[in-house]
Amino acid sequence: MQHMSELRRLLVSAHLVDARGKACPAPIIELVKALQRAPVVELWADDPAAWGDLHAFSQATGHVVEAPIGEGRVVQALVRRKPA
C-alpha cells in the first residue's frame, strides 16, 4: 500500500474517499454516500476490481469520472455527480 504522502490530491476542494485496503463493493458504497454530500468526490482505491467497478458505476448512474489516474496499484479518480 502506498503512503498518503506519495499520492497527490487531484482537486483540493473535492471530498476525498480513501478506500484503500477495502474490498469491493466498499469503495463504491463509500463513493455513493460521499456523492450525496458533495458534487465532486475524489476516490482512492487499491482493490484490483476498482477500475471496473468505477466504470460500471458511472455507466449505470450517469455520474462522470474525470481525471482517472492509476498511480501504482492505487486508483485515483474525480467523480462528478451527474447534472440534475
Could you characterize what this model shows?
With 84 residues, the chain is of the alpha+beta class. Helix 1 links the parallel strand 1 and strand 2. It is globular. The model is unreliable at 1-5 (pLDDT under 50). Helix content is 29%, strand content 30%. The protein is built from 2 helices and 4 strands; from the N terminus they run E-H-E-H-E-E.
Distance between the termini: 37 Å
The overall average pLDDT, rounded, is 86
CATH architecture: 2-Layer Sandwich
Percent range for β-strand residues: 25-35%
SSE pattern? EHEHEE
Strand order of the largest sheet: 1-2-4-3
Q: List the uncertain runs.
A: 1-5
Largest sheet: 4 strands, mixed
The first-level CATH class is given as Alpha Beta
Give the total of beta strands. Answer: 4
CATH superfamily: TusA-like domain
Give the total of domains.
1
How would you briefly describe this protein structure?
Helix content is 29%, strand content 30%.
Descriptive tags:
84 residues, alpha+beta, Translation Initiation Factor IF3, four-stranded mixed sheet, 2 helices, 29% helix, globular, disordered N terminus
Secondary-structure map:
Layout: E1 15-18, H1 26-37, E2 40-45, H2 50-61, E3 64-71, E4 74-80
Parallel strand pairs: 1-2
Antiparallel strand pairs: 2-4, 3-4
